[in-house]
Specification:
88 residues, 3 helices, elongated, mainly alpha, single chain
Length: 88
């Protein structure tokens, strides 16, 4: 893997030093890698949420929706069925 050098704002110096001193991380590179991985995962989750929201918007635009009370009843029914399937 090719390494690149980037400047990290000084406000993060103590955070990085504390993380290394605590033993949670062994180097600045490990911290940056972990932070970027978390950021990537967050972005992927946000994209999935955007896609799911768009599905809902598309349904609404086509008139495919149900009233709030009916939606809650259906959700409660699904929860009850899941609990039944899990058993004791």
């Amino acid at each position: 893997m090719t390494a690149t050098t980037k400047a990290i704002p000084a406000e993060f110096d103590s955070v990085i030093k504390d993380a290394i001193a605590s033993g949670r991380y062994s180097s600045e590179e490990e911290i940056v890698t972990a932070a970027l991985q978390m950021w990537k995962e967050r972005e992927e989750k946000l994209e999935k949420l955007r896609q799911d929201a768009q599905v809902g918007i598309d349904h609404l635009e086509r008139g495919e929706w149900i009233e709030g009370e009916e939606a809650i009843r259906q959700i409660k029914e699904r929860i009850a069925k899941r609990k039944e399937n899990k058993g004791p």
